Amino acid sequence: MVWNASPMSQPFDRICHYFGVKVALYFLYLGHYTKRLLLPTLVGIVTGIVRYSVPQNDYNTVFAYISLPFGAFMTIGMTIYLENWKRLNSRETLRWGTVHFSETVNLRPQFYGERIPSPINGKSTRYFSPREKLKRVAYSWVVISFLILIVFVIVSSIFVLTYDLTKKDDSDKLVLDDYKYGSIVSSLANVVQITIMTKIYNYVSIMLVNQENHRTDMEYENSLIVKTVIFQFVYNYAGLFYVAFLKEGFEGCDVSCMHELEYMLAIVFCSRLFVGNITEVAIPRLFVYLSKYQLLGHLDEYKQSDAERKLFMAQYDWHGTFDDYTEMALQFGFTTMFVVAFPLAPLLSYVNNYFEIRLDAYRLLFESRRPRPRNVRNMGYWYLVLQAFAAISVCTNGAVVIFTGDFFNYLETSTRVWMFSIFIGGMFLFKYSLEVCIDDVPEDVTVQKYRQEFLISKCLYHVPDDDVNCPIGNDNDDQENMIIIDDEDSS
């Protein structure tokens, strides 16, 4: 394992040949994401140094002058990063031979239904009533809505507890008499609820998606992605949204809601990175050790063969890449949505991803069974999730600077609303212009795709060649000079 290599120096072709395209595409995305974080990391460090080195009296002015440009820079940078990922994805999947791959063909082995003749070709096929599936999907969303309501209750209780500890009258106030301590307590409590609710929801969401009885693996995974992202979005970012946009109106902030947002984002983000890496590496190894010990008894006295050793390794099936993409998508949200409040977030993401590449590779090579290779054309719904987070970050960063910060407090609310509307309107227009100007697929890749389609049509489907009239010589040539060979002449 090479520790000083760049994120894009991974042996992607070897990963593809051994683990399959799906795993290789994840490592390709992780390397591309980490590489694109380098410039935001450097700009964030400079922004943080400027902000944290100015006197407190000048903080609001400096924050206003550098935060909006920094937020605009992050929006532009993330847009270019996502567009370049589409180009890289198309080029590499062309090389790996999955650019035309479709995941909608094969049925899931777990799909069940009534056997009926197909209305298309008359062959026996499994049929599951769309009405019954709609009922099951509706039931899933009712359960998810109830869990989201529980999260809102928990988050509200955390902030009520923090308020009781810091805002009561002096006779009733407890030991937390500083807003920093209150932010730390609420942030740590938020981390605890995130960790607990993650475990609960992971179990419930898989159970709900299983009972929906999806026809293909792509439908199954897309349904799980939507449910997971919505719920994870709520319980990971609910506390941050409350501090940024609601706390001032409900209970007020001691110094500035901006400072409390910064403390909370730093604590929650760092804790999530730490807990995520521990959960990813240590806990699976512990469970494997316990299961091995329960089955074999005294491990030191047992001589294991290579096959027996691999039997007790953790399984890295499609849930492996699903969990990894979930982790990266949430990290992308923490990095971009409130980056103007905590400009060092890209630095934390870059450092984490630098080690994440090595940890994931180690886990795959030494801690997991070899996963069944799977072909994919792209990262699926996860790209839409990243696009949605990038769009939300435009609104949140603009709102944090204009509404949460103190520099524009002297302006009327209507004026700030107009400023916010102009800012996000201009940023979305520029963002859309970049997306239009940058081709999703490079020109040489497009040509090669058409060439592949042409060869496939000739070799597999035996499409006849077009009739091409190619007269020999010019129309003015003397007909007598033309030699005509027929069967009699050839004999």
UniProtKB/TrEMBL annotation:
Pfam families: Anoctamin. One of its GO terms (cellular component) is membrane. Residues 15-451 form the Anoctamin transmembrane domain. It is found in: Membrane. Keywords: Membrane, Transmembrane, Transmembrane helix. GO terms for molecular function: chloride channel activity. It is a multi-pass membrane protein. The chain crosses the membrane at residues 12-30, 37-54, 60-82, 138-161, 181-204, 224-243, 332-351, 381-405, 417-434. PANTHER family: ANOCTAMIN. This is Anoctamin transmembrane domain-containing protein. It comes from Peronospora farinosa.
